[in-house]
Amino acid sequence: MFKFELNSVLSLKEKMEDSKKRELGVANTHKERLEQIKDDLMNEHDGVYDAIKKNVCIDFDVKEVRLLNQYSLHIKKQIKQTQNDIHKAQKTVDQKRDELLDAVKERKILENLKEIKREHYMIESKKTEQLLVDEMVSYKYGKVRRSGG
User: Fold this and answer.
1) Least CB-packed of 35, 47, 62, 106 within 10 Å?
2) What pTM did the predictor assign?
3) Which residue ranges in the chain fall short of pLDDT 50?
């Protein structure tokens, strides 16, 4: 029966690969959440901009325009910070993707080695089996010749 001597290492590599997949998923989810926050902030900024235009056109209130403008600047800062956070999150995603690719390569190398070892085992088993058959045939042949018939 075939037994791969590095099976425990292969199992460990598979678990590491699964762990790297989960880490990549978490990193992707975080980045997507940041992108959604940025989109929401941009929509809010557009709403503030529309409110400023509406106030200027209809009922010009300097205090309200100033307040809306300050809020608009605050949102722009938040958008910029979120964009920086997205950039960092993308770097993390790239790093996790590279780690996953390395883990996949390591697992595949071991799986290929296992398959090569299995093939060698099968070849050796067939050789051993053929030797046993040859011995049995020669034994029967010798027995038949000795008994004279």
Assistant:
1) 62
2) 0.74
3) none
Q: Which residue has the tokens 């590491």?
A: 16
- Helices and strands counted in the chain (H then E): 2, 0
Q: How many CB atoms lie within 10 A of CB 35?
A: 16
User: Two tokens at 31?
Assistant: 């980045």
Helix, strand and coil percent figures for the chain, each rounded to 5: 90, 0, 10
Residue 18 CA to residue 86 CA, distance in Å, equals 25
pLDDT of amino acid 60: 72
86 within 8 A of 38, measured Cβ to Cβ: yes
pLDDT at 94: 98
Residue 118 near residue 4 (C-beta atoms within 8 A): yes
Residue 54 one-letter amino acid: K
